[in-house]
Write a structure and sequence with these properties.
There is one protein chain. The protein contains 25 helices and 32 strands. Strand 17 and strand 18 form a beta hairpin. Strands 22, 23, 24, 27, 28, 29, 30, 31 and 32 form a 9-stranded mixed β-sheet that branches. By secondary structure, the chain is an alpha/beta fold.
């Protein structure tokens, strides 16, 4: 900006400006004003004759002086005569500030007798020692432009405008005389976007005084709202005395900003700043929700995306006036934390009248939670309601995974599933049932996780030592092997084959509670299963969604008369199941790489060995003796007895994490009913926190199946739904007897494992 000033000033002024160099340096300005003296005022941009009408038209009506006079602030006043002209025009309630003691002393001496009510104070305009909301207008003549030297960045300009917003009364105006350079407009427009009315006009100049640079006036009016207004342009090309580049740049900036503001008015996802909401934050407003950006720009190490929610209930029933809930990056796209409905559920469980939900992202990955909390603490204090002014501590809560230690065993990317991780974890707490069955100080669990839904564990199993038929791996034992066994191959991280052979998953225990829940539903057809096995036949099942293959492997071990066909869309998942979770196929368990919906639709009762289309569209012939199949295939002449759907949604922000929506469409449900045997059972693992979604799924299933049952798991997220095809149905009073029949059909090494399933049958309820 200094170079532009030099172009418009006289030769003597240019020489003096050369001494400034840095327009933000107090020492430089002291030197400048000492050399220039009091009687040689330095006017930036425009003289009073051209400023008089534009300024006075925007100022409040003049009073008779005294306390009733409008209060005006001139920041960075220098030795300009602007405030003197305003005083002489009747505006006696004037306060002038500048960080140069030299110029304030000179201006005070010059005006103390002629203008006794005018105030002069040595003060930094970026840190004003003034009360809140005391001025009717703040008049800036080049001050913002001086602070916004491009090489210095927006920090000082941002601090200055924050102070302007603070000291203005509601309804007050900020009159900014500026050259309207793009970096200055960018800050002005964004800083006064929410809750401010804005207009832009040019300062008229005579053609004889024509300069290569035009001066503009930006007028901003403070509102008590968070509305977004279009910027009013009062510019007329005929009055512009500037280069076409300066004019076109301003027109373009106005057009872009107004387009952005139009999007704000039509969207509910506006990101506020704490400054935008200063008047709104002190009061609790039940049911209010807004999003904002916290930190950055020198006031904190990190920038944060936060959602502020004022609870809907009466405030007397809350434990805290204000609380903070931190959501790690791995969970930030989950429906519970990403959607409005999910966020309100978190509010209700937090017992806080105002909950500040902070969603972490990739910029926070390397920071510890202690560092995050320390950085956030001063930021969230400004968001606390007035009720919290008694100094009560603001509690920090967090969506924790409950994992004590984690080790990545394998990581690969699939074109269908995205990033896939196999990891070994040690939990902070383990269910007492598994601890009693396998007494070990720290049991290790192997998990299959998709990055698209990082907190939804697809599959989970206990890890055991292959050298022992019963010994489960503890953390200390696993560490000794993993420390020297990791290698890189084809861009993914793997354990060595030696480690994979020594440590493997244990298929005799269902680590996932929803697997236990799925199997408990077999109680509903236990009499039918008993009759099938008594006749020497096999119960036939189709499982859509292989995952790590743990459910079919568990069933394979405990129900010897069960013949299964598993369907998996992604061949990479099948490879992982075999390489890292010990999945194997045999004559009772086969896998087809295919689309699950299409597989069921193409399922026929024709004999095995029929030609079918595979997942790639080519044909293959399956022989009953094949060890592995990657095609659509019939399981025999008889219809299927059990169809299980356990497929997650590819959209992590969906309100229904499991199953994918296609598997609960009415057309698919009708196909399932047609493919089931007369006594057949349909099982769906439903994962959703939305009651609306749950009700919708139940309604669709009721239209197709006559008898529905549900098992609500303890986590309050998974629900397993069961549907029976038969018109006649098991009575509720027969559940205990049916559970005993199911228990007798199981073959377990550890009876306690079977007992978990039988206990789950007691929680199954009929949906009416």
């Amino acid at each position: 900006m200094g170079s532009k000033l030099k172009k418009s000033g006289a030769a003597a002024t240019e020489d003096l400006l050369e001494t400034l160099g840095d327009f933000t340096s107090k020492e430089n300005w002291d030197k400048f004003f000492t050399i220039r003296g009091t009687n040689d005022p330095f006017e930036w941009y425009a003289e009073w004759p051209y400023l008089r009408d534009p300024l006075l038209s925007h100022l409040p009506p003049n009073a008779d002086g005294g306390d009733a006079a409008p209060q005006l602030l001139i920041p960075g006043c220098g030795n300009s005569r602007l405030s003197e002209h305003l005083y002489d025009a009747g505006y006696t309630g004037l306060t002038n500030i500048d960080f140069s003691k030299v110029v304030i002393s000179d201006m005070l001496r010059r005006n103390v007798r002629l203008r006794p009510h005018m105030r002069w104070r040595v003060m930094d305009m970026t840190n004003m020692q003034l009360e809140d909301e005391i001025f009717d207008a703040v008049i800036d003549k080049g001050g913002l432009d001086a602070l916004m030297e491009p090489e210095l960045g927006p920090k000082l300009g941002n601090q200055y405008l924050s102070e302007v917003k603070r000291v203005l009364k509601p309804g007050g105006k900020f009159l900014c005389l500026t050259l309207a350079e793009s970096h200055v407009l960018g800050l002005l427009f964004s800083k006064f976007r929410l809750g401010w009315k804005m207009s832009v006009d040019s300062i008229p100049m005579k053609s004889s005084n024509k300069s290569s640079l035009q001066t503009f006036i930006v007028v901003v009016e403070k509102e008590l709202s968070t509305s977004v207004h279009q910027i009013t342009s009062l510019l007329q090309d005929s009055t512009l005395h500037c280069s076409s580049k300066q004019a076109s740049g301003l027109h373009e900036a106005l057009e872009n900003e107004n387009q952005l503001r139009e999007k704000y008015t039509s969207s509910s996802h506006i990101l506020y700043s704490p400054e935008d909401l200063q008047g709104e934050l002190t009061k609790l407003s039940p049911g209010r929700r807004f999003q904002l950006t916290l930190g950055g720009q020198g006031c904190s190490i990190f920038t944060y995306h936060a959602v502020v929610l004022d609870a809907e209930e009466h405030f007397d029933s809350f434990t805290y006036h204000c609380g903070v809930f931190i959501v790690p990056k791995t969970r930030s796209r989950e429906w519970l934390f990403f959607s409005e409905e999910g966020q309100w559920m978190v509010v209700r469980s937090s017992k806080a009248a105002r909950l500040i939900m902070v969603l972490l992202d990739t910029s926070h990955i390397k920071a510890s939670m202690d560092e995050i909390q320390k950085d956030l603490s001063p930021l969230v204090k400004q968001l606390a309601p007035a009720e919290n002014e008694n100094g009560a501590q603001i509690p920090f809560m967090m969506a924790s995974e409950g994992i004590k230690e984690r080790s990545i065993v394998h990581q690969v990317s699939s074109s269908l599933t995205g990033s896939i991780v196999v990891e070994d974890v040690v939990y902070e707490n383990v269910d007492s049932e598994v601890s009693n069955i396998f007494p070990s100080r720290e049991l290790v669990f192997r998990r299959l996780v998709f990055e698209r839904a990082a907190n939804l564990v697809q599959s989970e199993a206990l890890v055991k030592d292959e050298n022992s038929s019963t010994k489960l791996v503890s953390e200390s034992g696993r560490k000794k092997t993993n420390s020297s066994s990791k290698s890189r191959k084809s861009g993914s991280r793997r354990q060595s084959s030696e480690a994979r052979n020594q440590f493997a998953v244990y298929h005799g225990y269902a680590a996932s509670s929803y697997h236990t829940g799925i199997i408990s539903g077999f109680m509903l057809i236990s009499s039918y299963m008993e009759s099938v096995t008594s006749s020497g036949k096999m119960v036939k099942a189709v499982i859509i969604g292989l995952g790590a293959g743990l459910l079919p492997m568990f069933l394979h071990g405990c129900i010897p008369f069960l013949e299964m066909e598993a369907v998996e869309l992604d061949p990479a998942i099948l490879d992982i199941a075999k390489d890292y979770f010990g999945f194997v196929e045999d004559n009772r368990l086969k896998v087809h790489v295919a689309d699950g919906v299409q597989f069921v639709r193409d399922f026929t009762s024709s004999a095995a060995g029929q030609i079918q289309e595979n997942g790639t569209g080519s044909e293959c012939i399956e022989s009953p003796s094949n060890g592995s199949s990657r095609s659509h295939a019939s399981v025999g002449a008889r219809k299927v007895d059990i169809i299980i759907v356990d497929v997650d949604s590819s959209d992590p922000s969906s309100a229904m994490a499991c199953p994918a929506p296609d598997f609960v469409e009415e057309s698919f449900l009708e196909t399932v009913r047609d493919k089931l045997s007369d006594q057949g059972l349909f099982v769906v693992n439903l994962v959703s926190r939305s009651q609306t979604i749950k009700d919708m799924v139940r309604l669709k299933m009721k239209k197709v199946f006559g008898h529905l049952f549900c098992l609500q798991l303890d986590e309050d997220v998974n629900e397993v739904h069961f549907a029976l095809k038969s018109e006649s149905c098991i009575e509720d009073s027969s559940f205990p007897e049916a559970s005993l029949k199911l228990d007798k059909l199981f073959k377990f090494k550890h009876p306690e494992i079977g007992q978990n399933i039988i206990n789950a049958t007691k929680k199954i309820r009929r949906l009416k």
